């Protein structure tokens, strides 16, 4: 086991990793920008190193600064959290070149899955069902129009390097194709430096179902069921739950095995998520994330496991503790993402927290780096916390969520808390009868969001 690890992240996810390390007797090093000197992850880690000015480019994304922090502190391994450098194959390469360990998959796996066309091709070969669409990239508008007619409208044009909901455009009819094609390419180029795009059938009423996988890098892999993340705004998740209200035990076992076998086949190491759209009883692969997800706690809730601990264990060379037989689902878990944003337009709302009170009690988990008097800097993502509840079943988890939201106080900035209080009043949320478009419609109707 490592003696000391460095956490190349900030906010709630940095705390998440520091907490797992502490329980394992592993020392932790926090890194931070000058804007984060007073941040909770800096206070909670055993040591901390300032790695640069507020801009992420010069701090949390600065590979030389992070490697130097390892050398100064003697940290042997780096946990990237999510976002920032977590899916950067070049970062993994540099870490290994310095004789350090990356707590995550290999550079090669990150590279394969980071390019959506290559990922889809790889998954197809591994027997994972995919959304019907182009074979590989589509280079010209003529080709795109021809494919659109073949696949049948609506279709979605996606940048192969896309992420975070960027670089995706829907063409409802042939007339939309030119605009969608050019915009997806332009977004791919400007956001990710790559204008290659591909085309998929646009599914009109799917749910977003993702399978948590975990591998030991030596040909053994398991799945930890699914998460339903269908409540989305602008292709971004806001509310996640496990198990999925629409997935039967048989379907879970079937798609879970397909995913675990695929990961065993490629000797995948660590945690990963294979994302699907699910419509009319069929799963369609869309992408794989080669890292810990924001919503991993709902899986931890129902399986009673610590995914970060397991990540650290296998990265240090210890065998995987998970076995498929021992992974049993208990109850239901829900997570809501608390963002410092002002409704109805979800504008970032940085500023000083005048009062913070976290909910507690049975089945309540609050993952947040907030504290009374904390100043939320304007430079980073607006996620300020995750409230996760666990109950014996879905109705109990929903009731608990309502109760916990009632106790939660975050004053001084605007947050998405009122959104969740309102959503809990909705019958579709209570029954789980929604697809990936439901929330967008609801926001338009109820908040008049443009
Ligand atoms: P990103 O990497 O930007 O998160 P994904 O490929 O994971 O992009 O897709 C994000 C979301 O976009 C999905 O959860 C879904 O809501 C929507 N989406 C993606 N592909 C399709 C499709 N073929 N049909 C309908 N919706 C889609």
What topology emerges from the helices and strands here?
Blueprint: E1 4-7, H1 11-23, E2 27-33, H2 40-44, E3 47-52, H3 63-73, E4 77-79, H4 89-97, E5 101-102, H5 107-114, H6 116-125, H7 141-151, E6 155-163, E7 166-171, H8 177-192, E8 197-201, E9 207-216, E10 221-233, E11 236-242, H9 249-265, E12 269-279, E13 282-289, H10 296-303, H11 307-315, E14 332-339, E15 341-342, E16 347-348, E17 351-352, E18 355-357, E19 364-368, E20 375-376, E21 383-391, H12 394-407, E22 409-411, H13 417-423, H14 427-431, H15 438-447
Parallel strand pairs: 1-2, 1-4, 2-3, 4-5
Antiparallel strand pairs: 6-7, 6-8, 9-10, 9-12, 10-11, 11-14, 12-13, 14-21, 15-16, 17-20, 18-22, 19-21
Helix pairs in contact: 4-5, 7-8
Explain this structure.
- The chain is α+β, with helices and mostly antiparallel strands and 450 residues long.
- The protein has three domains: 4-89, Rossmann fold; 132-201, Dna Ligase, domain 1 (2-Layer Sandwich); 207-446, ATP-grasp fold, B domain (D-amino Acid Aminotransferase, Chain A, domain 1), CATH 3.30.470.20.
- Helix content is 34%, strand content 28%.
- The protein has 15 helices and 22 strands.
- The protein has helices at residues 11-23, 40-44, 63-73, 89-97, 107-114, 116-125, 141-151, 177-192, 249-265, 296-303, 307-315, 394-407, 417-423, 427-431, 438-447; strands at 4-7, 27-33, 47-52, 77-79, 101-102, 155-163, 166-171, 197-201, 207-216, 221-233, 236-242, 269-279, 282-289, 332-339, 341-342, 347-348, 351-352, 355-357, 364-368, 375-376, 383-391, 409-411.
- The strands form six sheets. Strands 13-12-9-10-11-14-21-19 form an eight-stranded antiparallel sheet, sandwiched between helices. A five-stranded parallel sheet has the order 3-2-1-4-5. Strands 7-6-8 form a three-stranded antiparallel sheet.
- The longest helix has 17 residues, at 249-265.
- The mean pLDDT is 97.
- Residues 131, 156, 162-165, 168, 200-203, 206, 208, 232, 235, 275, 277, 286-287, 436 line the site of adenosine-5'-diphosphate (ADP).
